[in-house]
Structures are given as structure tokens and as C-alpha cells.
Amino acid sequence: MKKLVYFFCLAITFSGLLTSCQKVIDIDVNTSPTQLVIEGNITNIRETQFIKISRSVPYTATNVYPAVSGATVQVSDNAGNTYRFTETAAGSGLYSFGPLRGVSGRTYTMRVTVDGQTYTATSVMPTPVRTDSLTLTKITFGSNSRTIVSVNFTDPRNVANQYRFIQYINGRQVNRIYVIDDRLTDGNRIKQDLYFDDDDFETDKLVSGDVARVEIQCIDKPVFTYFFTFRQQSRGGPGGGTTPGNPPSNIDNGALGYFSAHTYQSIEIKIP
Amino acid sequence: MFKHQLVGLAVYTKSLLLPAHLTLYMQYTLGKLFCCLAVLLCSLSAVAQKKFTLSGTIRDAATGETLIGASVIMQSANGRVGTATNAYGFYSLTGAEGTYNVTISYISYQPIVKSVTLNKNTVLNIELKAGSELQEVVVRAGDRKNENVRSPQMGVEQIDMKLLDNIPVLFGEKDVLKTIQLLPGVKSGGEGNTGFFVRGGASDQNLILLDEATVYNSSHLLGFFSTFNADAIKNADLYKGGMPAQYGGRLSSVLDVKMDDGNNKNFAMQGGLGLIASRLKVEGPLIKDKSSFMISARRTYIDFLLKASPDTAIKGNTLNFYDLNAKFNYKFNDKNTVYLSGYFGQDNIGIKDLFANHWGNTTGTLRWNHVFNSRLFSNTSLIYNKYSYNIELLDDVNNFKVTSLIRDFNLKQDFQYFSNQHTLRFGVQGTHHRIAPSDISTSGTSSFNSLSIENRYGLETSAYLSDEYIVNQRLTLLYGLRASWFALLGPGTFSTYNTAGDITSSTTYGSGRIAKNYFNLEPRFSASYLFNDENSVKASYNRNTQNIHILSNTGSSSPTDQYVMSSNNIRPEIADQVALGYFKNIKDNTFEFSGEVYYKWMQNQIEYKNAARLIANANVESQLLFGTGRAYGLELFAKKRVGRLNGWLSYTLSRTERKFTELNNGNYFPARQDRTHDVALVGIYKLSKRWTLSANYIYSTGNAVTYPAGKYNLGGITTYYYTERNANRLPYTSRLDLSATLEGKDTGKRFHSSWSFGLYNALNRKNPYSVDFRNVPTDPTRTEAVQTSLFGIIPSVTWNFKF
Question: Among all residues of chain B, which has the CA nearest to that of A182?
Fold first, then answer.
């Protein structure tokens, strides 16, 4: 987080001095064979749970990702329960089971079989940490000031916690990954600012009347590592930044994506 | 006589190594070296009994500054011997009794020829007068003529500080680090950046010395400026390969920068007002011809402009750097001189009520030159250097202050022994390191916890011996050995980790106890063979090792770089380099040409695991991966040294790759700084007595980067799929920079001024800084690549004065 804040601030400081500019360019890229992508979530809310299976496409293709039908999908837990997921609609690639409520402390195992290949992943549902409020924070850089949403909660002491936030503005998701852990903040009152800019959303400003909703997840450590790496590679720094790579998935057998048993909470705030 | 000095050395060795058991260890390892040395010295002095020695110091007649690398040639009916002055302007030549014509010369100075009758050991101190610039003959007569062909030293670049005045640079701020990037084998760390990569090495593999003190972070303002204020610099040498044995501790290069001593004849001032910064230097004698001082300062004034803003929020922001160089010397007599020099620099960046960041280097060097006799020169240095940074977040809730530092104490003893065919260098060095990785302090209400990561201590000791041996008129050898011993010291707890990064065992050591140590022998060898005065081939092999490593998530130098030492987890980095070169001068030294090829093997290179947490992590060593590297290339260099139009063309064809079991399926992949082609063309044209025009043009292949090969959708976000690491290229870089210098009218008074006008990126080409990927804003079904460029055309103007 520090590093992010750091470069961000420097970028702002310099922006007045440098004539930096952006342009769209043509590039040569490699093409890869399509890869299986699995996105599995189990929440602690009694509801229908979804596992989505699709395939990647070459970089040069349009953003249409083939759904994978006909997969065998099941989730089991360490209390001896097994849940068989079925495809919600033929050809959708979306598999569901429910209503099902995940239980904190339990280990969930996902098994997906596609074309004779089996992909498995496990995830432990963490103990929920309650977020008590969203607040608005005004930040000022020079003459430019903007309002952002902050998440407020108290981190439990002496336990390693990881959090993921998903921000929606007027119902549309902000394209930025927000994950934090308590490596340097264990046991404290936390105010997490959810900064975004116009690369993540159509605008970088929240205006009066906007409704911001934040989904708060407590996630386990492998899922945190997945999203933390995912976030790191999505921004170029000086000379190109961190060399991007595929985030380390908790699913075996080379599938992309993740399987996360996580807690769920959602809070809204309206910009006055 | 030599026995006496060896005892002196042993005393030094002891004082270097305070803990007694270390002394024992060193005595064993160094003992052998010095035995060989003693035998060698005795045999040398036996040969030289009936000869006499001419020695002395060469200085600038106007300022009294010692001249480094000035040529001294002693010619008689029976032949000639020659040498160049050392880092303190000292030379020593030995010949049989007789009468000699002694020619002393230095580039752009008027040579002096003296007749000397050598019938006893003689001291000849000479002051050379600077030649007026248009007198071609002065430069041409520079009898370092063909030095580039003759010397066995390979891969060395001497940077003529006067040249800097005419090389166009970003914001007009002349800079030695940007100038070396125009030389073959040296690659820029990025647009407008002072970071550099030498022969495929990483940026932390350059040893950067300022008056012998290590400068850990040589950049200001994220690398757009270097810490070297050109006003205060006398001389800079860059070794890309064939490192002489007196240098060690880094794999890929040595940049040895020396400060001016200070004018010991007259008081003088010089300075400049530039677009970004202004400079002022004051120097003069304290006791004429005995003692002088130099103080040089530089400060940016961007923040004064910020302060002038009517907007109170802008007013509160900080953005500046400054640095201060100071040097003092005192000459007790012809045999003893003491130098005290220091550097202090700091960067400050801050946004009001939000964020503050400070970083900087401090160095101090105390040196004692002692001339034992006309042939044995000694220098003793006591050196201190520190690099530190802190970052503050000033929010009420999310506040912290992180501080981090690396500090060295260094004691060095160097000897130079001159014989007619041999120049010996030998010495010992001991450096004590302290690294304080991160101390986080917070207010009581902060969401951050206070945290202090254990300090790390290390002792680096080394001894070296080298000999430049003129075998005959054609063959010269430069060979040597450096022995280095590194010890990671307690107090501290040292852990080992499994591949998942979890601690498998921990051991705690008390203060001064050795947690881990490494001993390395580093052979160095170069040879030159002259076909004739203007043609030679050279070959070299050298091994270098490195025990201080930078961990950084970014490609270029960043103020928050983390330093780690070799340890139970990190083995010393090792590089072996071989090089072969052909050197040719044409038309009486008007044109110099060289071609060199090299191949380098690197061991124990460092990369980071996915999701590595480098900052404020007590177990940072669990985040690392270790592998190997290789680099090879061809460097061509053509230079026109004299005439109204001079300059050079440099071309590098190279490749640098790394191999890690855990990355890229264990296959070699290009390092980030891998660029296939690099071209630099520099031209300086003396239009008239007052106007000088100059231009440089650079072309380079883009950096190796990783572009996506595929994409997929994850939770509504377009996500990229990567296959081979660094298999793609940024677009190429091409840039033309121009400058013009107008010298003030020569009024015959001491006051002299000049104007420099610059145009950076005169063609306004958008060179790539980075490339990112996103959905097309108007059509989310497609993705596009977006290139960010930093600088368009940037004009600059600087006014310089001197009196």
C-alpha cells in the first residue's frame, strides 16, 4: 500500500512539471492456446452459490470468452457434506448450488472435471470481521480535490486477516482490485480508502447523488496472494514496473482463476 | 626497508579487524599474499640498484589542482620510459644514470619538455598551463597519444569533465551519469534517468565511488538528476570490465568519481543559474601552495515556484533537492598531504497534510598521502558513508513514519610501488556495514503498528595485489588477485526458509559473532599486445563478487530500495567476464577506434517471488529466488578527438539473460534491461570563438517486457494471461538533443560568463516509458495497448559564470 501511495503521490507532484502523454499503439504479441478459467466463490450468506467456468482467448481477439458447458462441478467441506453444482442454463458456463451457507472455519474443496481433466482447489472460510461504516474522505492534491469512500472496521488482534473490497458506483463495478492484509496493522482501527481514477472507471470523481456500494470479503491467505499479485501486475511503474505474471492460482492442474470461501458484507453510502 | 612496511601493514590489518578471532583468520589468508609480495618487491629492488628515480606531482598552473593521468615520458639515447600520474597526480619513473628529455603532457594543456640529469633520485614537480581551446596543436601534442592503444586496461572510459559543458541534457543540468550513458556498453536506466546498466548487469551491480566513499543511491528526484554536481567533480573513470584489483564489491562496473581539491593559488568562484537548479562553487588557498579548500553547492528551486502559487494547497507542497560538496587539503611537505572531503545531499518531496518523503546520502573521506620514497606511494583512507530515507504518511488515522538506512565505516590502505617495468599496487580494506531495514513509528491512534526490523551488521575485508608489467615494447600485462572475506555478524536472529517461505529454523547470534561468512578469490588479468604504435589487441579476464544487494520491485533506482547483505540464504553474487578488443588510432591520434567483445557469466542472481513483500518485512529473505545469468555483446567506438568538429559514435550489440528454476519454466529469459541495439552519436562543433554547437542522437531497441498473450474475464474485469517472461519489446527509443553555448566576450578581466541553450528531444518524439493494456473506452469488446511517454520537447537555458 505504501508503495502505491508513494508512486501515486509522486505522479501527482510531477504531473504539473512533466509533459507526460499517452497514446494508443500497435504491438506484436504472442498468442497462447486457450486456458480454462474457473472462478469459484462460497460465501457465508445463505444463498445460491456460483462457480463460473470459461476459457481465455488470444489477446488480439474480441472480449468474448467462451463458456464451458458440461462440466462436473462439486464442492465438499471437511464436515462431510458434498454439494453437486449444476449448470444454471445450458451454455451459460455458470454452475450453481443453493441455497447454501458457508461456515467459518470449515475447509471447502472444489472439484471441477472438464473433458476428463480434474481441477481441484481448497479454501478455508475465515471468521467474519464486521465493517461498521462507510465514510467519505476528501483528498486534495494541489488545486484538485476529490471525494473517495473509506471502509471502517476494527481488525482482530493476534489473528492474520485478509480483506478484499469490491466497489460499485451507481451499480457499476470499479475496475480496481482492493486487497489488504493486517501485516502492519494488526489489531487496530482501520480506515481503508478506496482510491480510484479514470483508468478504473469512466470518471475519477464521485458527485452528489452518486451511490457507492462496497462489498467486503474476509478471504484466506492464498486468495489474498492471488489478488495481491493480480493488483501488482496491473500497473506499470518506472521502466515498466513489476514484471507481470499470472497470479498464483489455488487451483491445481494449470487452471486460471481462483476458488475462494469468504465472508460477505455489503454497505452503501450516498454522496450528499 | 620493506620489512618495516609489512609490519605497518600487519598493524593496519589488526586495527581494521577489531574482534581478535577475525584477525587470526585474516592473518592466515593475507599472510600468503604478503609473503609473495615481499619476495617480489625484494627481487625488484635488487634489479633496480644501479638506477635512479625521477618522481613528483603534476599540477594545473592556474589552480594548483593535481592532474590525474597526465603523461610523463623520459627519453634518452638509449630509449624511453613513460608513465601516467596516479589519482593524486603523483608519478615515478626509474632509469639508468644519464641525461633525459622529460616530456610532461596532459590533454588540452601545453606540454613541457625539461632536460634532467639523473645522477641521484630526483624530485620534479611540474605545473602545466591550460592551452587555449582553438590551439589544436596543444591537444594533439598531448602525449597520452596512443595511450588507449598501449595500456593493457580494457573496458575503461575516462570522462573528460570539460566535455560535459557541451553535451545537451534534460533541463540543461550537466551530468556525468547521463554522459556515460552515451558510451558503448552503458545503457540508460530509462528516459532522462541517471540510472545505468553496464554490460548486462543490474543497476545495483555498479560500484559508485565519490572520493572513495560508496554512494548507494546516486540519483535525485527519482533519477532525473544525479548526486554528482559537475562543478565539484575533477575526474570520473568508468570500468566496464577488466576491473583493476584495487576495486571490488560489485559485479558489473566501477564508477570512480573524484572531487576537485580546491584552487591553491587564488580565490575563485563559479556558478550557474539553470532552469531547475542553481549552483555556486567557492574555492581558494588557505595557505598558498600548502592548503586549499573547495565548497560547492546546488539547489533546485521548483518549490519556490510552488510557493509563489496563490493556491494555498499548492503552496504547502515540497519538491526539492540540494547537495553540498566540500573538500579541504593540507600539504605538510612534499611527502605528506592530508585531504578531507565530504558530500551531503538530500531530496524532499511532500504533499501538504498527506505525505512526505526525504532521502539522501552523506559521505566523508579523510585521506593521508604519504610518499615513503621516490618509488613507494601510500594512501590511507578513513571513509564514512550513509544512505537513508524516510517516508511519512500524515493522515490522522493512516499515519506512520518509516525510516531506513545503510551505513559504512571503511578503512583502506593502498600502496603503489613503481619500478621501471613494474607498477605494483597492493593494499587492504575493511568495511563495517550496518543496515537498519525499516523502523516504523506511528501515533497512538494510527491504524499502523510501530515496528522495528532487526538491524543487520556485516564486515567486508579484502586484500589485493596487482602488477602492471611492461614485458617488452609490445607486450604489457596487468594482473592481480583480490581476496575478499565477508562476515555477517550478530547480534541477530537468522532464519532459514522452505520454498513456501515459511521459517524452518532460526539461530540467534550474539554481538560480534559470525552468523555466516564467505571467502572469495578474484583473479584479474589483462594484456595488451602492440602490433605497432597505433594498433593493438587486448584481452582480459576478471572475477568480481558482491555482498551487498538491492531489492527493488522496479527496474530503476528508487528511494525506497531495500539493501540486504549476503547471508545464510543469500550467497555472494559472482561474475566472470572475458573480453577481447582491438584498438586502433588513425591520422596521428585524430581518430580513435576500438572494438570489444565480452562474455559474462553471473551466479547467485536475485529475483523476487510472486507477491513479494519487500518493505518492512523481517523475513524478506524468504521472498527471494536465486538463479544465474549471462551477458554478451560487441561494442564499437569511433572518436574524433581534435578539430573544430569532434565527437564520437558508439554502437552496442548485446544480450543479457537470466535463468531461474521457478520462472519462465526454468528457461533463460531476457533481463529487463536487455536491448539488442544501442547507438549514440555525439557531435560538438566549434562554430566561432564564442559559439559552440552540439548535438547528440540516440537510438535503442526497447526494453524487454512481458505483454499478454491471452485474456480472460475474472469478476467482470478483463484479465491478461502471460506466457513467456520478457519475450516482447517496448517500441524503440530515438531522440535528438541539441545545445548551443555562447561564451562571454573576452574582456581580459577575470570574470567570464557563458550561456547554454538546450533543446531536449528536439524532434518531439514520443518515446516509450511504459505500455499498459486496457479495454477500449468506446468499445469494451476490444482491448488496446497504451504507451506512456514522459518528455516531449524540453527547452532549457543556463547561465554560467566564473571569476
Answer: B448
Task: Map out the domains of chain A as residue ranges.
Answer: 2-13+127-248+263-270, 36-124
Residues of A in contact with B722 (CB under 8 A): 244-246
If 0-12 CB within 10 Å is exposed, 13-18 middle and 19+ buried, where does residue B675 land? buried
**How far is Cα B98 from Cα B120, in angstroms, rounded to an integer?**
10
With CA atoms as reference, the chain A residue closest to B397 would be A191
Number of residue pairs across A and B with CB atoms under 8 Å?
Answer: 252
Contact B792 A19 (CB under 8 A): yes
**Residue-wise pLDDT tens digits, A79-117:** 999 999 999 998 999 999 989 999 999 999 999 999 999
Q: DSSP 3-state assignment of B70?
A: coil
Residues from chain B contacting residue A243 (CB–CB below 8 Å): 672, 705-706, 725-726
Q: Which of B398, B451, B707 has its CB closest to that of A29? A: B707
Residues of A in contact with B769 (CB under 8 A): 20, 238-239
Domains defined along chain B, listed by start: 2-144 (2.60.40.1120), 256-802 (2.40.170.20)
Cross-chain Cβ contact B553/A241 below 8 Å: yes
Q: How far apart are CA B702 and CA B729, in angstroms?
A: 5
- ipTM of this complex: 0.90
Nearest CA to CA, how far is A220 from chain B (Å)?
A: 15
Closest residue in B to A58 (Cα–Cα) = B710
CA distance A108 to chain B (A): 20
Q: B50-54, B349-353, B473-477, B546-550: lowest mean pLDDT where?
A: B349-353
Residue of chain A whose Cα is closest to the Cα of B715: A39
What number does CATH give the domain A2-13+127-248+263-270?
2.60.40
What digits encode the pLDDT tens for the residues B292-341? 999 999 998 777 766 766 666 666 778 889 999 999 999 999 899 999 99
Are the C-beta atoms of B729 and B675 separated by less than 8 Å? Answer: no
Provide the grid cell at B176.
556525468
Q: Which of B604, B579, B611 is nearest to B594 (CA)?
A: B579
Residue whose C-alpha is closest to residue B558's, from B349, B787, B706, B698: B349
Sign of CA dihedral B652, B526, B93, B67: positive
Residues in chain A predicted with pLDDT less than 70, given as ranges, are 1-20, 141-143, 233-242
Mean pLDDT of chain B: 86
Give me the pLDDT at residue A142, please: 61
Task: Return the beta strands (E) in B641-709 as ranges.
Answer: 645-659, 669-670, 677-686, 691-700, 704-705
CA distance A208 to A231: 29
What's residue B544's pLDDT? Answer: 96
Give the residue from A14, A184, A219 with the most B CB atoms within 10 Å of its CB, the best one to mutate: A184
Number of H helices, E strands in chain A: 2, 18
Of B723, B786, B788, the CB nearest to A32: B723
Q: Taking the C-alpha atoms of B428, B434, B435 and B438 in order, what is their torsion angle to the nearest 10 degrees? A: -170
Picking from A243, A251, A258 by the largest number of B CB atoms within 10 A of its own CB, the best residue to mutate is: A243
| Identity at B631, one-letter amino acid code | A
Of the candidates B393, B554, B787, the beta carbon closest to that of A22 is on B787
Q: What is the pLDDT of residues B155-184, one digit of tens each?
A: 788 887 877 878 887 877 888 888 888 999
- Evaluate whether the domain defined by A36-124 bears CATH number 3.30.1330.10: no
Domains A2-13+127-248+263-270 and A36-124 share a fold: yes
For residue range B480-510, list pLDDT tens digits in order.
999 999 999 989 999 999 988 889 999 999 9
Q: Do B721 and A240 touch (CB under 8 A)?
A: no
